[in-house]
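REVIEWER CHECKLIST
Item 1: Sequence provided? yes
Item 2: Single chain? yes
Item 3: Sequence as submitted:
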Amino acid sequence: AYKLLIIVELLMGDLPERGIFRLPLLRRALASYLPIVQAVRAGDLALFQATLQKHQALFLQDKTYSLILRLRHNVIKTGIRRISLAYARISLADITRKVHLESEEDAEYVIVKAIRDGVIDARVDHENAIMISNEAVDLYATNEPQAQLVQRRALQAQVSQLYVTAPYRDIELVRIQSIHIGCEESIEYGR
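Item 4: Structure as written out by the authors:
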């Protein structure tokens, strides 16, 4: 059951907790699944393929082989995401080598799909066969963090004031309208 849970978590885009692999009862049973998780986490297609070949008989016996095959795309997307964060511009040939893809056309297809899916923020220059990562916006250079802090402090002040005054009044229901857009919280007080 844990083997299937691990694969399903990976397919959903989550990483299983490392503690599961350290439990004495499960350590041996999950030993062949740990390299799969590490490959998905690192975006290492070579490790993924090697583990798949090495433990193919076990995966077939556990009836998880077909699900594990579906993880290949997740491994590639993770590798592409890491590369897009590390390089401002990189050739498709270099991406093909780093992610261990078969051809530049495969790399281009995967990159375009990752861009369309919102996995990476980049564009492909087809003429020069390069991927150009868009500059990340520095959120802390904007006023957004300050605005969030002001909103949170205002809500905190409202709740604090309510706590101070509510027990001394005969209030059945006190409604706090928070500053957050579309968020309404109700706190009930009664005797």
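Item 5: Key structural point noted by reviewer: DSSP finds nine helices and five strands in the chain.
Item 6: Recommendation: ____
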